[in-house]
Amino acid sequence: MTDTPKNPFDDLMKMGQDWAKTMGPIMESFTPAAIEKMWPVMPKDVMEAFWGKTWNPEGLSAKNKLLLTLQGLTILGAQAEAQIRLTVRHAQEAGATEQEITETISLAGMFGGVPAMTKAMNLAREVMTSGQEGQA
Questions:
Q1: Which residues lie below 8 Å from residue 32, measured CB to CB, with a gap of 6+?
Q2: What distances in angstroms separate CA 135 from CA 45, 87, 88, 99, 127, one per listed residue?
Q3: 47: which of 62, 91, 94, 112 lies 20 to 30 Å off by Cα?
């Protein structure tokens, strides 16, 4: 009789879950979708301060960093739906146009494939059209 080797990631996951429980009951059930409800969009000035040129004047703007993040999330297979929606909302707040968001996702399709591009585009469209409903 041989012992089945234990998956080392099981211990790591258990440790993370135990840590979350010690942080508080809310952390035990915290999900990426909860981030959307907690803080749907940061103000443009806050994003620029933390992610943009405030501390690094020669670096990328918050808008460009968010577009790069959107591209990466798309290339990874557009599996992080809450993160894609959150990134699109923040990119818009940072000044990205619908055209820039669409081009970013389209370009990512060359590297991540058409299914990932299509999924990300649908998620972005969902965000962009929901934002326009309030403006009508």
A1: 80, 82, 83
A2: 22, 20, 17, 18, 13
A3: 112
Measure the CA angle with vertex 14, ends 8 and 18; round to 5°. Answer: 150
Per-residue pLDDT of 6-50, as tens digits, reads 777 778 778 877 777 777 666 666 666 666 666 678 888 888 888
Residue 34, both tokens = 């909860």
Instruction: Mention every residue, 6+ apart, whose C-beta is less than 8 A from residue 47.
Output: 62, 66, 90, 93, 94
Average pLDDT value for residue range 92-96? 95
Tokens of 18: 């135990």
The C-alpha angle with vertex 54 and arms to 49 and 55, in degrees rounded to 5, equals 105
pLDDT band for position 57 (cuts 50, 70, 90): confident
Angle 98-112/81-93 helices, nearest 10 degrees?
A: 140
DSSP conformation class of 76: T
Structure tokens given for 101? 């968001």
For the chain, how are helix, strand and coil distributed in percent, rounded to 5? 70, 0, 30
